[in-house]
Amino acid sequence: MIYCTININLQDLRKLPGKSGYDFVDRKNMKIDGMVQKAIFYAVDKIKQKEPKIAFLKEGPYAVPVIK
Predict the structure, then answer these.
(1) Within a 13 Å sphere around the CA of 19, how many CA atoms are in the beta-carbon half?
(2) Taking residues 4-9, what's their average pLDDT?
(3) CA distance linking residue 68 with residue 54, whole number of Å
(4) For the CA atoms of 46, 29, 27, 35, what is the dihedral angle to 10 degrees?
(5) Greater model confidence, 7 or 53
(6) pTM
(7) Would you say the C-alpha torsion 16, 22, 23, 28 has a positive or negative sign?
(8) Where are the domains of the chain?
């Protein structure tokens, strides 16, 4: 799982399971479109033998787990 969001800060996102979308962007130029594009390229390259599946969560009422 790759979390592509700029609404959760880097430190909090690193606590979640999966990969942070911040790993795909330059900290000085954090744009969501570039983050998503690079994450898709990464995922497709990572699973070349399998057909990739993508889930897109539109902004809305959903929960992000919190590690305490």
Answers:
(1) 14
(2) 84
(3) 29
(4) -20
(5) 7
(6) 0.63
(7) negative
(8) 1-68
